[in-house]
């Protein structure tokens, strides 16, 4: 589990770096595109402005798809985190039941010891009454003689 966790963290860090670099590159491209659009608006006629506007919406769609991909990666990493929280919960749950099982066996063990202790006391009492009876039989026999 430890090796898988380290591997997943490495993959997450690499993907995060790639996404960050890609985001910086896209921001630079977006700034350049905005500068080009401003130039078109300032120096071109109305129709050229209209075509630039259409082109802007086309780029907007491309960036929208890119941000959907980023959102997918965000949800994927969120799911990955939730998944490992669930695994951790079941691991703690298993440890908790191991502790409960240990105390249950511990209680059963002491019940067995207690049983043998009572058993020994019971047989000591029986032995005492048996010796007591033999003792009085011997005394009675001696008195009869």
From TrEMBL:
Entry protein name: Uncharacterized protein
Transmembrane segments: 22-46, 58-80, 117-143
Membrane in keyword set: yes
Keywords, comma-separated and alphabetical: Membrane, Transmembrane, Transmembrane helix
Domain of life from the UniProt record: Eukaryota
